[in-house]
Amino acid sequence: MANELNVKVVKSDSQYRTYLEEIERLAASDPDPEAPEGARLELLAKLVEDYEKVRYVFHRPDPVEAIQFRMEEQGLRQKDIADLLGGKNRASEILARKRPLTLPMIRALHDRLGIPADLLIRETETMPGRSEDQEIDPEDLPYETLVRRGWIARDATPSEVLKRYLAPVGSPVFLRHTLTFGITPKTNRTRLWLWLARVRELADAEISKLGKFSRDTIDMDLLRYVARLSWMDKGPRLAIDFLAERGIAVVIEPKLPGTRVDGAALIGSNGVPIVALTLQHDRLDNFWFTLLHELVHVWKHLDARTFRAIIDEEVEQAKDPEVKEREANEMANEALLPRAVWRRSDTFRNPTSTNIKTLAAEQQIHPAIVAGRVRFERHNYALFSALVGHRQARSLFPEVHWS
User: What is the mean pLDDT of residues 154-173?
Assistant: First the structure.
């Protein structure tokens, strides 16, 4: 047999890609597991998986995650793919990780949905950090808050709320490619995920009003233009409208009790990039910094195969931020007020109210942005409180249910 097991440990990307191509070819032929082709498929899959663990530090989705992603991408429901998985009951078991995929199922999913075979033949894993007892507790639901905000009807049961917002199929919140920065032991994760799911639901409802998104449109010029909108009356609303025209949804949704979330960046169910803000501090400097920070995440860090959602708690207070957070901070600051301009300014050397307003006028940005930079760099948030736009952010969004 010429196609035997004369394979070697994967040591290069080119060898890795060659093995992936052969895996897809073998999987498409649906070999008998006991036949030489079936044994070769199993060995190649193992070698590829071992290489991925060393070469790629990011998470590659397991079969269930790959199926869920394609369902979201194509707007499919479980019943729409039931015939590919052997019927309704079998589909439920597979998506619940109670039963593995068979080779005929892998072939059908590969042929009909275009899911790479190398993802489907990987062993299905349990979700780390997701425990029905520890992570999802109906007692954690802020029921009265949800009713008051119009999220749910008064007669909705806890199970209905969890099914609507936290169902594992069709929701990003339980997938491993959600990063949360600034989280503490006191953070209520269920409520954080609930908020994230609500944000995506609101954004999905507005998709028809968005322009066509292209990642190429996001660059420093776009970020700087958004920052300059702060100079205008009702600048925050103008920025949201501007981004919507470019296919980026911005959702304003207050945080839930038990969380301290400032904002998030995520991919919607139809691939639409979403920026979410809570305006928990109700300051204009915080609005503009968080908006630009999350836009950098959309531009640089979101990807359907790695991180589909990034949540930021207390974005201004991060100590020793992770690489992605540091990059988002630096690029947001550069777009709002370039470092070279800031370091040469009189305001940097002598921060006074007059100098702050003068520099803001020269750069055509809101004085709150300059005042916020002074407060942040001096680690003194009592400075220039009259200039940072206290209680001037939420008032621009009267349609939001503020507590």
Answer: 69
